[in-house]
């Protein structure tokens, strides 16, 4: 049997209740990591924690947190450290969309998406970094998006937030490299989750013209890359953006 690569490590996954986040939690737990599931949807997060415990011999914690609220974030991170005595992996995955064309975009929808998708990442990094710095080790993986690289009509707020996540990733990677903390981003293309289930069959068909691998991605396609960025074997990679998009943007 293969040795588990994340035995006794502690991982925090935001937006971990469902979709890509849930898949990341399941993957990290399958490698032995104790998982902290942070989500605004507490019931679904509890259900996911139960599923993880039934499948893998690891500990789970659930926190109902709005990632855009620094006090809630700091409280959850401090409690995680109190419980496990270390924080090895932080996956900033929680994200939302509120799409509209530029001229129709409300100030409220701009602020909300930037608050969750960009400030939420800053909040978790700020709250977690002090523990990782003390340990002289840590992995931070931020979930961006293909539209943060290439832009997308109707998503000025979302694409700006995801482009911001990439710039932030590179800055933090430079600040923390000498302290043993590696910081990378993963940029998924279109992945089958609640976020993309609104796409009509027609829209999906049209999308296939731009995706050389000719399919939508599975949440596991993203989770596998997050897993790789969490393990010892990726210890010479920092400040990078890894695309998981079926070749949609090269
Ligand atoms: P999802 O299925 O909607 O799951 C996101 C989870 O985050 C949900 O449980 C959601 O709760 C939670 N959440 C939303 N706002 C939150 C907040 N303020 N604080 C804490 N939790 C919050 O999304 P997904 O498709 O898995 O996407 C995960 C990440 O991948 C996002 O950052 C997204 O931008 C990125 N991404 C996704 C795709 C894709 O095609 N799916 C492509 C590129 C990038 P509620 O359901 O209650 O809102």
Structure description:
The structure is a single chain. The chain is α/β, with parallel strands linked by helices. The chain has a single domain (10-242), classed as NAD(P)-binding Rossmann-like Domain (Rossmann fold, 3-Layer(aba) Sandwich), CATH 3.40.50.720. The chain is 46% helix and 15% strand. The protein is built from eight helices and seven strands, in the order E-H-E-H-E-H-E-H-E-H-H-E-H-H-E. The protein has helices at residues 19-30, 42-55, 70-84, 107-135, 147-150, 156-176, 201-208, 219-230, and strands at residues 10-14, 34-39, 60-64, 89-92, 138-143, 181-188, 241-244. Strands 3-2-1-4-5-6-7 form a seven-stranded parallel sheet, sandwiched between helices. Helix 4 links the parallel strand 4 (89-92) and strand 5 (138-143). Helix 1 packs across helix 8 (219-230). The longest helix has 29 residues, at 107-135. The termini are far apart. The relative contact order is 0.14. Bound molecules: NADP nicotinamide-adenine-dinucleotide phosphate. The site of NADP nicotinamide-adenine-dinucleotide phosphate has 29 residues, from helix 1.
